[in-house]
Amino acid sequence: MLSYFIQLMNDMKIRTKLILSFVVVVFVPVSIVSIFLTGELRKFAFNNALEQAYQNVDRVKKRSTEVLNVSDDLSYRLSYDERLKNLANRQYESVYDVFVAYRAYPDLQQAKQMYKEISNIRFYSENQTMLNNWEFIYPEEEIRQAEWYVRAQENIGVIHWDYIVDERDGKHYLSLIKGVDLGSRDNRGVLVINVNTSMLNTILNQESFYTIIADSKNNIVAANRPDLYGRTLSEIHDDSGAIYQQSGSYEAIIDREASKVLIEPLNPEMGQNSLRIISIFSIDSIIAEANRINRLVLTVIIISLVLAVLLIYSFSSLISNRLLRLSKHITKVGTGNLAVAMEIDGKDEIGQLSRQFNSMVGSINELMNEVQESNLQKRRLEQKQSEIKFKMMASQINPHFLFNALEAIRMEAHLKGEREIARIVRLLGKMMRSNLEVGSGKTTIKDEIEMVRCYLDVQKFRYEDRLKYELEVDPDAEPVRIPPLIIQPLVENAVIHGMDHKEDGTFIRVKVTAQRGKILVVTEDNGAGITPERLEMIHSFLNESDEHEGGRIGLRNVHVRLQLTYGPDSGLTIYSEPGEGTRIEFSIPTGGEIDD
Questions:
Q1: 3-class SS letters over 393-437
Q2: Where does the record place the HAMP domain (predicted)?
């Protein structure tokens, strides 16, 4: 792509290049600055709107709290008013006695008249001798079973806020509900103070953003949109569910518009209050001014570009002719005519270039010779570097000498009656011969298991009763050919790590089964197991792409060879839990290797 662009630039006339370069010099910086400033303006507008929203929410919170505090303070005074308790506890003998008692206690009516923040007050008492005057009310069965009434009866002295129906006019009100102790567990009253919702709506109407107050049941108790009075949050279309959160700042699609949602709890210290203020503002409306400025900047850029093109076109004509004449002389030199000489006119950069051109023509031959010499030296250097060879294995031990030595040790042990040592030496020699004879070919599962058996017998000689093992091989799997040293490293790993922190010994099981055209090989131990963190590191190590130096046949060696031979799904799978041991398994197809 770069070469194509360079070729395209080289094919352009100098006048076009000058025009294009000037356009780029003007347009690119202006574009970068405009994009940066526009982004900063959008960011500033958004942050400013967010700050204003926080201030609005804080203002609404303070003013709404003042309204709610009136009900809170009044409920505190009334719940400890002994005259109210005496009035509710007294057993009346006549309607006249009730009338006199009510007339002697005008506090509820006076409070309603005194505080504009309160819409109404009612006190529920189960004293059947009292009359229902819509201030003192005997609760009907429906009221007694209401959730808010039961909660107030069970939590005496605790303030609850709820959006409930006033049975006197059938309307919903945000109400303070408080259970009042009248002297005994069976004699309790419930005080309900209706908040003046119109005052809350008036407070919210002064806000420019979409603002509502909702309760714990997602009822909208106040809002600056009349169409939401008395409704629930489900009336607001929000698939993300941000408006149902208890607090925080969220981005959501509200009524199909990208919006910012601010949620602030409303005085959580005022009893069991889950009221919250929800402020929603459209992001598009905030950045509208920034978008307008962006369009204005784009218009200015286009006008500037047009003016720049006109100016550079006239300016480029002054120098393009002189450069064209220089280009013609260079073309002659390119054809091999080194006798040309250019007439020098002017003392500017083009004039200097003309002088340098004349000097250049005289030294081209010398330069060509230097290039040829440089290439010759480069070839000589490469030739010397290619002569360096890697040499290894200058000194090796003859495997036959090692086998003969092991056989001599075995015979000596046998003659002296050390049959167990002789057996172990024989097994060790058999293992070493098998390992050294391993090439790029295949071995059978039967032979591989035999090597595993030799290895385990040698280890059992070392660990005695601390090591026990079991080999279970499906006869159908024995003739299957596999790469050598695939199962033995897994058993070696089980012995080494299975014996860690195991004073009572370790049990190793190797199971090979043939089923559904696949061979499943499982090695298990009852060792200390592997922690989840360590197991994750092992999985990462198995799947590393980089090669590691060293010839030790380990888990990664087996894992990679299985994947290279049978495909990426045939690698090792490790299961382990601390204290439960470790199981390593792999499965391979019985049909042979995957062709490259």
A1: CCCCCCHHHHHHHHHHHHHHHHHCCCHHHHHHHHHHHHHHHHHHC
A2: 317-369
